[in-house]
Amino acid sequence: MASVLFVCTGNVCRSPFAERLLAALAPHVRVTSRGTHALVGSAMDADMAAELQARGGDAAGFVSRSLAPVDLEADLVLAMETAHLDVIRDEQPAALLRSGLLGHADSLAGLAQDGPLTVRDVRSWSRTSRTADGAIADPYRRGRRVAGRSATAIEEMVRPLAAALSRPEDVA
Predict the structure, then answer these.
(1) From 8, 34, 55, 65, active-site residue
(2) For the segment 64-74, what is each residue's pLDDT rounded down to a tens digit?
(3) From CA 67, how far away is CA 59, in angstroms rounded?
(4) Residue 101, pLDDT above cutoff 90
(5) How many separate helices (H) and strands (E) can be counted in the chain?
(6) Which of 13, 14, 55, 65 is catalytic?
(7) Residues 90-101: what's their mean pLDDT?
(8) Domain 3-162, CATH among 3.90.79.10, 3.40.50.2300, 3.40.50.150, 2.60.40.1930
(9) Does 13 qualify as catalytic in the annotation?
């Protein structure tokens, strides 16, 4: 897995938090984020940026961007809600073979017991990772406590994912 895309609604809270946290944990992976209804050009939400900094990430320089079909060519696409998967399906149906909800990423990471995640692992996982119980709540403008809960939920999925992704020596 050389590239990961996170998708949320405004691309100012959940997906940029996940992007920047995974980038800090797995600097050898190309990580991006986009929004289905992005607040284009906006910085990361201040509460989520504070949560990110507390967890070792950095929101500096982040700007919100809209999801485009070319973005969906990532090796792994992780959405925050099933509505985002619906947009992915509408934009590029084949991308669903590489897509699922971030809230189910722990089961994906569990597939990497014998080595880094493979395309085959992602395809198998994607078929079972689209249920609403894998949604990450949107903290937008809901205060620091809600941002903290969303950040914790994201971190619980991103940390094992980072460990499961290929390391530089695996992609050489």
Answers:
(1) 8
(2) 999 999 999 99
(3) 19
(4) yes
(5) 7, 4
(6) 14
(7) 95
(8) 3.40.50.2300
(9) no
